[in-house]
Amino acid sequence: MKAVTDPAKLLMDRLLRLLRWRIWLAERLQPTDWQATLLWAALAGFLGALGAALFSASAEGIHLLLTNSHSGIVESMRRLPWWGRLLVPALGGVLAGCILLFGKQFVKGKSSTDYMEAIVLGDGRLPLRTSLVKVTASLFTIGSGGSIGREGPMVQLAAMLASLLGRWRQFSTQELRLLVACGAAAGIASAYNAPIAGSFFVAEIILGTIAMESLGPLVAASGTAALTTMVLTGSEHLYQVPRFTLNSPLEMAPYLLLGFIAGTLAPWFLRSLRQAETMFLATRLPLVARLGFGGLLVGLIAINVPEVCGNGYSVIAQILNGEIVWMVLLGLVCCKWLATACTVGSGAPGGVFTPTLFMGASAGYLFGSAVQTLWAGGPSPGAFALVGMGAFLSAASRAPVMAVIMLFEMTLSYDIILPLLLCSVVAFFTARGIEGHSLYSESLKRKAAEDPRAQLQIGRVGDLTKPNPPVVPLSARFAEIARLFISVRVNNLYVNDEAGRFAGAVSLHDIKPYLADPGLAGLVIAKDIVREDFPRLTADETLSDALGKFLATDVQRLPVIDGDGRLLGSLSKNDLMLAIVEQRKKSAI
Q1: Is residue 493 classed as helix, strand or coil in its secondary structure?
Q2: How far apart are CA 98 and CA 137, in angstroms?
Q3: DSSP 20-38
Q4: How many other C-beta atoms are found inside a 10 Å radius of the C-beta of residue 78?
Q5: Are the C-beta atoms of residues 488 and 454 closer than 8 Å to each other?
Q6: 491 vs 195 pLDDT, higher one
Q7: Is the model's pTM score more than 0.85?
Q8: pLDDT digits over 165-204, tens only?
Q9: Domain with CATH 1.10.3080.10 in the chain
Q10: 249-286+298-452 under CATH 3.40.50.300, yes or no
Q11: How far is CA 382 from CA 425, 548, 574, in A?
């Protein structure tokens, strides 16, 4: 006769076998919350790159639909008849306005789609519907030749995907905000093939800190995004430029003068965009008519100057390679400035990052042409154009480190680093002395002023506590403990007594002696193996006190209790470090 097998014994054997594998992996890999954060940041970067690639393909499809051309925006507009150059941008504005107007019917409330607001002022939650409406509307603005950049919606889409990923994984507020920041870095890296600059864009401009607690995940996200974009598109550095050399220290003098010029022009450029927005709103035109009118004005300019359409990438490449006469460029930069003001002022969704680079390249080339007229042996106008891009971006964004790194990554021209560094720093301080607002600070300051409670106030452990950690009672049997360890990724299970007060914790490594003997394991309960001296935090403790307790132990997550000893939740060391970095940033302002 066959022996009768006890189902309970089979179940216990299976649990013990799985638990042995679980402990083996924990001991070999030793995954921490910080390592998990890096992995999720890399995944956010991968999703951001896919989103950016999808957006680029969609924008090219809209462009083909409106112009019946596979060429670039400037070349396509040049091939159109005069009435086509006039109507295509206007039609794109109308369609973008219709999408924004139609999308309002599917959006409840006034949820913001601003990824910077979600990172700096909010809780990291970006709404799906409103973000998709905004990104879709920008497709028609960009595809029809609006004088605006595509990096804005790319970053928006990447940040939204990161927010959805974090919400799906039920990240804490601190982790979610960091993950959205990683998505934004991935969007910049995908748009400009500049992973280092993408990291510093978010760290320097949005987060305001270059601490490793935030910079590490940003680098993981932007690096993954750049690598994914390279695999998908085979793209290299963005601009192919001739080799520039610094022949004499005397050449630094005109570069420093260019820094003063760029630092003076950049604030006026930003003011003109804000003034254009005010003028368009003063017309009291409906949304669709306002965007259509802005597109019509761009079309009027494009009848004679089709180079004003698009973000200016192709014209920048010509400037850097000296393919444009300075007299032609002087008229072109005035028209491009006006077209950008019309597009941005009308409320068309998009970015102004690349148009800012265009203005810097133009200002640098014009200045370089004047220098070459007076000094025949001086640097070429193309070198001044390259330095002018970085200086203008530094002055407009108030992020000189990011500007220098981005220009280097986009051109891989190392020889220009020294004048680029000095010129960007001079432009930064010049612009800051003229205008307190930067390219991205205005909207954040306005939102903070409208809602003082928007900025999350974090000063105690209770503000960072994550509720509902895995808990077992003192009477829990070994099988129940084993199931929890297998089903959730924690190394410590919290234990409550009969009155609901925190009694200690059961460590994953403390149960190893019972894995070899199923009979003994069947007799063990949580009370037999609980660590009553397990470190704990109280909700009213300061963050500095909590950091001291974390430093005294190798545990990555500690329980949080109230004054009566009841378990409120848990706090991870990663969340604590991110909150401390944010506190230091605020105190430094």
Answers
A1: strand
A2: 8
A3: HHHHHHHHHH---HHHHHH
A4: 15
A5: no
A6: 195
A7: no
A8: 998 988 877 788 888 889 989 998 888 888 888 888 887 7
A9: 33-233, 249-286+298-452
A10: no
A11: 20, 55, 46
How many helices (H) and strands (E) the chain has is answered by: 24, 6
CA 96 – CA 566 distance, rounded (Å):
54
> What are the backbone dihedrals phi and psi of residue 220, each rounded to the nearest 5 degrees, phi first?
-60, -40
So what's the pLDDT on residue 30? Answer: 58
Classify 490 as helix, strand or coil.
coil
Give the Cα separation of 387 and 417 in Å (integer). 9
Query: Shortest CA distance to 256 belongs to which of 387, 378, 374?
Result: 387
What superfamily in CATH does domain 461-588 come from? CBS-domain (3.10.580.10)
pLDDT tens figures, 502-523: 988 888 777 777 666 666 556 7
Instruction: Say how far apart CA 353 and CA 151 lie, in whole Å.
Output: 7
Q: Where on the phi/psi map is residue 318: left (φ > 0), alpha (ψ -120 to 50), or beta?
A: alpha
Strand partners, 476: none
Region for 491 from its dihedrals, namely left if φ exceeds 0, alpha if ψ lies in -120 to 50, beta otherwise: alpha
- Cα 531 to Cα 500: distance, rounded to the nearest angstrom: 17
Token pair for residue 450?
Answer: 């409208």
Q: Spell out the CATH class of 33-233.
A: mainly alpha
Other C-beta atoms closer than 10 Å to the C-beta of 243 total: 9
Q: pLDDT tens digit string along 242-280? A: 677 777 778 888 999 999 999 999 999 999 998 999 999
Laid out side by side, the sheet with 502-507 consists of 471-473, 492-496, 502-507
Q: Could you tell me where in the chain the CATH 3.10.580.10 domains are found?
A: 461-588
Residue of 557, 585, 564 whose CA lies nearest to 461: 557
Instruction: Round the average pLDDT of the chain to a whole number and report it.
Output: 82
> How crowded is the C-beta side of 450, counted as CA atoms within 13 Å?
8
* Beta carbons within 8 Å of 445's beta carbon, 6+ residues apart: 437
* pLDDT at residue 398, as a whole number: 84
What is the total residue count of the chain?
589
E-only strand ranges, 112-198: none
**Residue 531 forms beta bridges with which residues?**
505
Q: Tokens for 68? A: 């019946």
Given a contact cutoff of 8 angstroms between Cβ atoms, the answer to whether 349 and 137 are in contact is yes
Q: What is the 3-state secondary structure (H, E, C) of 320-369?
A: HCCCCCHHHHHHHHHHHHHHHHHHHHCCCCCECHHHHHHHHHHHHHHHHH
Residue of 160, 164, 132 lying closest to 58 (CA atoms): 132
